[in-house]
Amino acid sequence: MAFTNEDYLPSKEELTVPELELTSSVLRAGAHHFGKYCDKQCKEFMLCVSEDPDPRKCIPEGKEVTRCGFEFFGKVKQNCFTEFTKYFECIDHSDRQMSLKNCRPPQSLFDECMKNKLGQDRPFLGYFSSPRIHVTERPKPQLTPHKLPERIPDPPDFKNSPDPEHKFSPYGV
């Protein structure tokens, strides 16, 4: 895609966002609760990305997901640090695929802490794949009008063409 001088490019300040510097085992351990905690922000971002092909318009929604992630992991650190640490260390040392099946006891301790201190239950199996209605204040996107191709010319008039039975023969017959 080519850019022209009229195209708006976000400044570096607009694009610069502090990153959640977490390892994959930490993200894997907190994924279910994080997904439920930041459900609205994640859905707003995914709705924006699916409705608008221009990624520049979804920068604020992406920043909101990051802000919610900082908020969530900050609350986990304040309230359930030891339980969460045991859980993600177990995942980190379980196997190469970081399977959760070997870490059910620390998971239940972490889930219990999340329920008691933050009031959030672990989402049930299939929660993220079940249809859920999302209400948004974002305006509906304006669809660009569909441009039709140019009209195809009419076929030639064959009434005035020579009879196909009397074709030109190179042998003179």
Automatic annotation (TrEMBL):
Keyword Disulfide bond tagged: yes
GO cellular component, one term: mitochondrial inner membrane
Bias-annotated ranges (Basic and acidic residues): 147-173
Biological-process GO terms, alphabetical: mitochondrial electron transport, NADH to ubiquinone
Keywords attached to this entry: Disulfide bond, Electron transport, Membrane, Mitochondrion, Mitochondrion inner membrane, Repeat, Respiratory chain, Transport
Region (Disordered): 136-173
Main location, first listed in the record: mitochondrion
Compartments, record wording: Mitochondrion inner membrane
Reported function: Accessory subunit of the mitochondrial membrane respiratory chain NADH dehydrogenase (Complex I), that is believed not to be involved in catalysis. Complex I functions in the transfer of electrons from NADH to the respiratory chain. The immediate electron acceptor for the enzyme is believed to be ubiquinone.
Family label: Belongs to the complex I NDUFA8 subunit family.
The name this protein goes by in its record: NADH dehydrogenase [ubiquinone] 1 alpha subcomplex subunit 8
Species of provenance: Littorina saxatilis
